[in-house]
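just leaving the lab so this will be short. below you get a single protein, a line of residues and a line of whole numbers that encode the local backbone shape. id like you to explain what the token line says about the fold, in plain words if possible. thanks a lot i owe you, the record is right below:

…
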Amino acid sequence: MQDLFQIYDLDFNPIPLPKDELGYGLKGMGLRTSSVGQEATEHSMSGWPGNIITGVRDTDRDMSLIAWLESMDNTDFLLKRDSVYSFFKRLGSFYVTETRQGNKLMKVKVVEQYAPEIHGGVQTLTTFDIPLKIDGQPYWISRYKSMDLHKNGGVPFNDHWSFGMGLDVDKTKYQYSNEKEFNIFNAGTRPLKTIQEKDNCIITIEIKQSVNNFRLYDATGRYFEYNPMKNSKWDLKSGNKIVLNGHYFTMNNTPIMERTNRYFLILLSGDNIFKMEGLTNYTITFDFRFKYD
């Protein structure tokens, strides 16, 4: 029987569920997932009944692992039960996915108490409902990044991508050179605020000319600017590499936040038309994970 959920470590390596060489052990029955809850901001008006909702904010969602534990006998049950407890305690935070759409992952951790449910006094076949605490935002992320699509020249026929991930086979280019305007397609249903996406969204700009200042406009009309003060000490030259990684801005591994206007780019869901101003000889790469409700 195939497990109906898969666990990955924080480096996205698959981790097998605890089983012995005879196949006894924990087997995944499914992943129970709720919708994302929302917190409403409400205001009342004098003389009017009820409240007016003026805004909402996503909060959290409930998740739990549903599994069954198969043991050889009653003594083996005690050993297998303890191995399950040890397994999840040692894991710390991890990623989990539903096997049938195995390329969208959620970062979680087991923090609450749980215990096997024994049915009819039979200990050799028991079930677990293991509550999960979401570690971070309550959204799924893609197992692979956008540059996997770019390097394959489209959606590859492998297990990296699945139906229902919003991909467009005609929009898989995530690296451009010397373009005044270009499109970056975000296949996820969620916009990406890059300040929140350290290591999950890395934008690299390779400089191939001498220049003092440039701007990169995103689809919101706002822009990232290098050296808005036009300081000659911060001139760029061919070979410099600027990396925007979450809330870290570096050039050749040296922090450069103070050399910028401190704007963090946004990737909206769908098409994103970027415009480069002041830089004509360069290569830019967007390597990011898509995010889903």
